[in-house]
Amino acid sequence: MTRVGPTVEQGVRPGTRDPRWWSLPRAVDPRVIWLAWASFVVEVVLIGTGGLVRLTASGLGCPTWPKCTAESLVSTPEMGIHGVIEFGNRLLTFVLVIVAVAMFLLVVRMRRTRPELFWLAFAQGIAIPVQAVIGGLSVLTNLNPFVVGLHFVVSTTLVAVTATLVYRSMNGPRTAARLVPGWYTGLVRGTVAAVVVTVLVGILTTGSGPHAGASEAVDGGRLHRTGFDPQLMEHLHAIPAYVLFALTLALVVGAVVLRLSSRWALVLLVVEFVQIAVGLTQARTGLPVGLVGTHMVLAGLLVGAVTVVVLSTRGSAGRQAVRERIAA
């Protein structure tokens, strides 16, 4: 017979089940963990599909917004593959809406016991219409590179929000306990600053290159770019990237010396290594769309990884209880 007992955060034994699985939880359970991960994955996938739209010159595949054309909400056969790709990217936003709404509903009853989960889920949900409006503006401004860049900034911000949602749902709320010395915290903050600069300069670099997001025929012969020299921007982009790599290497070494867990710093270092390798290869091979798209997705993973590095410098309450709940 199924046992009925308190939630894990109140001391339930592993292996027991709450028969009211369909009800909204009052404590973190596997559904919260899964949806937090789904939120993160969908945000990263959206970066990839957004890159696909841009790199296949499908940015104006749907030439208007919010409809795909003035007469049709969806793409039409006359619009070809570009319309399919652009409309497909818009449809994925609805998947994100479903995930975000479900995530919010699962944590709404925890707004007093786990307010950080409530507000993170709320932030994700409220950012979706903002992101949709910016995407619409990018279409209405014929893919102005600065508007498109703002779209990417919001996307990476949402990656950081959902990465925090995953970490907090799995490890419990933050405590006041600092797990690292002050100088290491300063090193982490410097790493965060380097990530921000690297991503922002990378956005301007992409906005200066050949991938305008639409063909000249679709865009009326006017490919909007930033006006910056692409080769100069590539060199400027490399500077904060190498500084970031050096700082992350220092984080790993510092963690080993202090006998701290270096797992997340190592993850960040690996992401940066692959990111640098892809960046150098794409610059030397004429910016092939596959590598540029990979570089964009890696930028999202970079933001997610550095977010977890920051979170891991502070203690978390309830980690064991949450793990027991997952095991159950």
TrEMBL record:
This is COX15/CtaA family protein. It is a multi-pass membrane protein. The lineage of its organism: Bacteria, Bacillati, Actinomycetota, Actinomycetes, Micrococcales. Keywords: Cell membrane, Disulfide bond, Heme biosynthesis, Iron, Membrane, Metal-binding, Oxidoreductase, Transmembrane, Transmembrane helix. Pfam families: COX15-CtaA (PF02628). The keyword Transmembrane helix applies. The keyword Cell membrane applies. It is found in: Membrane. The chain crosses the membrane at residues 32-53, 91-110, 117-140, 146-167, 187-205, 239-258, 265-283, 289-311. It comes from the Bacteria. Pathway: Porphyrin-containing compound metabolism. InterPro entries: COX15/CtaA_fam (IPR003780), COX15/CtaA_HemeA_synthase (IPR050450).
